[in-house]
Specification:
Layout: H1 2-7, H2 29-32, E1 38-41, H3 54-66, E2 71-76, H4 79-86, E3 95-100, H5 108-115, E4 121-126, E5 143-147, H6 159-172, E6 175-180, H7 193-196
Parallel strand pairs: 1-2, 2-3, 3-4, 4-5, 5-6
Length: 212
């Protein structure tokens, strides 16, 4: 995606993804948009990457707080850093914080760090779900999103893995959102993402927390 955007000359992608870049000139964009919307912050990057200075993260949080008409979803794989950064700080109620939980080894341990984050909404992005993640402690978690992998080299997701997460969300009172099957359907057959759709056992799952 970065190479494609670089090739067509989209500002900000002149150097592809060779290194982390911050673009302070874009920080005021949410402030200029008055109609409430949902921003998925850094959809192609990670706000808490080790190369992003605390000072820049401070600026991002300041804008999110001032742009209170919007809801901001911040997803990170740097769970330890977000837990440390937010301690002693007031996370604005319109800022949702989440971590990626793609597998047992790397993903599941992030949940404990997320629990320490003082956010109004804490969520898990179980996408792409690469294996059975086992029994999860969802205490303090408000929302779980599950989805399969897409794109070149995508790996299949088994329906049993998804059902296990759904069962645990039901048992622990957590909202469950099934986003997509990805490149492989529930039957394990590779098709287009559109063909595979997002039905799980014949229905959609769209539960999510109320917007701020």
């Amino acid at each position: 995606m970065a190479r494609r955007l670089q090739a067509i000359g989209v500002p900000g992608y002149e150097h592809g993804f060779k290194k982390v870049r911050v673009l302070p000139m874009r920080l005021d964009e949410p402030l200029r948009r008055k109609q409430p919307t949902v921003y998925f912050v850094n959809s192609m990057s990670d706000l808490f990457h080790t190369d992003v200075p605390d000072g820049f993260i401070d600026q991002v949080f300041d804008v999110m707080e001032r742009a209170s008409q919007h809801t901001f979803q911040v997803l990170t794989k740097r769970a330890e850093r977000v837990a440390v950064y937010t301690q002693g700080r007031e996370v604005p109620p319109n800022v949702w914080i989440g971590v990626s939980v793609e597998n047992k080894r790397h993903g599941v341990p992030r949940i404990e760090h997320l629990r320490a984050v003082p956010a109004a909404v804490r969520f898990l992005s179980v996408e792409p779900l690469l294996e059975d993640v086992g029994e999860l402690d969802l205490a303090g978690i408000h929302w779980v999103i599950v989805g399969g992998e897409s794109g070149h080299g995508a790996r299949p997701m088994k329906a049993a893995w998804v059902r296990s997460v759904r069962r645990q969300c039901r048992a622990q009172g957590v909202r469950f959102f099934f986003k997509q099957w990805g490149a492989f359907g529930a039957d394990g057959v590779k098709r287009s993402k559109k063909e595979n759709g997002r039905l799980l056992d014949g229905r959609t799952y769209d539960a999510m927390p109320a917007l701020a």
